[in-house]
Amino acid sequence: MKKPDLDLYTDYLLSTFGSATATGLSAMVEGDVSHDQVTRFLSGQEYTSKDLWQNVKKTVRSVECEDGVLIFDDTIQEKAWTDESELMCWHYDHCSGRNVRGINLLNALYYSNGTSIPVAFELVKKPIQYSDIATKKRKRKSERTKNEMMREMIYTCINNNLIFRFVLMDSWFSSKENFDFITGKGKHFIAALKNNRLIALSEEDRENKRFVCVNDLNLPEQTSVRGWLKGYAKEVLVVRQVFKNKDGSTGILHLVCSDLTCDYDAITTTYQKRWQVEVFHKSLKSNANLAKSPTRTLRTQSNHVFMAIYATFKLESLSIINKLNPFALCRKLLINATRSAYAQLQLLRAAA
Q1: Is residue 196 one of the residues assigned to a domain?
Q2: Statement: the pTM of the whole predicted model exceeds 0.70
Q3: What are the pLDDT digits (tens) for 142-170?
Q4: How many other β-carbons are positioned within 10 Å of the β-carbon of residue 314?
Q5: Is residue 201 assigned to a domain?
Q6: Which segments of the chain have a pLDDT < 70?
Q7: Helix 3-15 to helix 35-42 angle, to the nearest 10 degrees?
């Protein structure tokens, strides 16, 4: 890996406020680096999760602790007008409730001592094309599911000796296979449950297969109860968290935890850390120009995603040093750029 080129490109992603192009980077450094050099850099080696770990490992070691958490979530960057490929294809967006064309990215975010660090990622590629029997339309599918990708990423993080206690995830990843894998590796999980998930609150109910929907349970407030999820052999803790939405409506979240030593406060407080991955995804899109690259090939597109992830990590590191959140830091950069442009405009007007 050419570290100077990596630092230059990722600094450019954090500095530019328009499209992230090779000619734009060349112009920023006044031609010291040609646009062809930038193109060759992006189309060279393929940058993977392993390269990300090598570049963030030192920072991780400086902040990791026993109470660290590993957070999983995916995000979709819509790019409706880019040519379709196995990377740039259709995905179901749970936020909008519709299929969108773009890049689907699965991230593993490590959160410890107030610091969020991306430690692994996978791009959801769909190289297999088939014809849907019902609609007769051509569709694509991946060779691996996102759940399989997540388990592989957890395995890699454990092999990298990453110190963490819990894996945090939303209801999309709350499967028996994931639960078994996590506890089988000596770790614990806290996950959201769908309202129709079935549970038994006693061994007798479980043996007699008397399961009820978690949403129908009359759970006491701010209390954790023991139970057994249908299809999962181990005893778990379940809590119901009631909260207010921004619009004033009431929301209900059911959480399941594998660590039987936890109480309600420990479970809900720990799961609140999962919000850090949402902040990371917002910064990735807003501050690191994830969507603003006109790259066309599979290699350059995937490498640009890697660069955006690493740029977001660099911004997080700078925000800690400068005691500003990443968005305030980028706002400061934008104000300084505007001031510089304004000053240059005044010089041009004076010369005219």
Answers
A1: no
A2: yes
A3: 999 999 999 999 999 999 999 999 999 99
A4: 21
A5: no
A6: 1
A7: 110
